[in-house]
């Protein structure tokens, strides 16, 4: 790992300082109301991510938005300080670190990539009266708890799956090939079960051209998924639908190659893993043609160009596209917080919460209209794209108005890849 990359996973407060003011130690008593915090100076944003543990690859990818945001936010006229926190990929740790970030003076929290860890942090923020903006977390229940301090700039599992169904049909129509049988292989964590629940709820009325044979759940911490892949192969499924993270997605594809399981394609309705940089680095040519249907960054936005330019400076050895989703979602969450602070004119929690409720942020990185929140704190105006790995790069293939290349379906067999 390069020294630049290490700076992302172990950022000091001095390294992530944005603006001119230094970080003031502001430890408070646990349970103290948010209004007791300072109302002047820069906005202190606690960024809670799984920087270590099983989800570290994704968490560290998201964390690159902190380093990039140092320049981007300052150029946009925002005054913030970023305080990093590590959930260690653990729900209980996420709860404890959320408390610590607030005690260290954070006026607003962002995170935490994983739905379970985000839910734990949301409970803390609700008790303390501190806003929490989810960068990536899709479990529907997060905005169904009646929280007054929770805001999610990311689709729910229901929205991810609902947006995926018509785009799947577009893949089949565009290529002239349609599978007749599909199987769902998914992690049994909070996000995986939420995606599976959304799929079960929406599939009967979606008018999909294939039947669902079965669903196979697995532990995302497992080191061997040979049994699950063998079951999927034995089912005769022509399409494999997955909900994964990078580590388990790698295990699945390795086993598919080993067992010569060659369905017409692998499609994920909104989960990470298949487009992550680590997926490409480990699997090489076997990473190609995997497809994800999800929100994506708009390369035509001026902000996206600025972010990519900064990324190239800071991480010259890495491919921007392999981190763009995680960076885009996290940077947009930082922008939402900074915009609310600027409009509120104070770091006081009540004013920040009111400003967040009236958000209408036109400048952002992800595809879609201005960021707004409904009464539950949910942004309901996300769009999705079909992103297929082509030449070991996530490439938009649908809808046609945004497509860089045409979709490939069915995909070549494992031994036919050059």
Mean pLDDT across all amino acids: 89
CATH superfamily of the largest domain: Response regulator
What is the percentage of strand-forming residues? Answer: 5-15%
Helix content: 25-40%
Q: Please identify the top-level CATH class of the largest domain.
A: Alpha Beta
Instruction: Sum up the overall morphology in one term.
Output: globular
Intertermini distance: 28 Å
SSE succession:
HEHEHEHEEHEHEHEHEHEHHHEE
| Major β-sheet annotation | 7 strands, mixed
CATH architecture of the largest domain: 3-Layer(aba) Sandwich
CATH topology of the largest domain: Rossmann fold
How many helical elements?
Answer: 12
Number of domains: 2
> Using only CA atoms, what is the Rg?
21 Å
Number of DSSP strands? 12
Structure description:
By secondary structure, this protein is of the alpha/beta class. It has two domains: 3-155 and 298-357, Response regulator (Rossmann fold, 3-Layer(aba) Sandwich); 158-294 and 385-416, Rossmann fold, CATH 3.40.50.2300. The protein is 38% helix and 15% strand. The strands form two sheets. It has a seven-stranded mixed sheet with strand order 7-6-8-9-10-11-12, with helices on both faces. Strand 9, helix 9 and strand 10 form a beta-alpha-beta unit. Helix 3 packs parallel to helix 4 (115-128) and helix 7 (226-234) crosses helix 8. The two termini are 28 Å apart. The model is unreliable at 1-38 (pLDDT under 50).
Which helices and strands occur, and which strands form pairs?
Blueprint: H1 3-9, E1 43-49, H2 56-75, E2 80-86, H3 91-103, E3 108-111, H4 115-128, E4 132-134, E5 150-152, H5 157-175, E6 181-187, H6 190-202, E7 211-218, H7 226-234, E8 239-243, H8 246-259, E9 265-268, H9 277-283, E10 291-294, H10 302-314, H11 324-344, H12 349-357, E11 385-389, E12 394-398
Parallel strand pairs: 1-2, 1-3, 3-4, 4-5, 6-7, 6-8, 8-9, 9-10
Antiparallel strand pairs: 10-11, 11-12
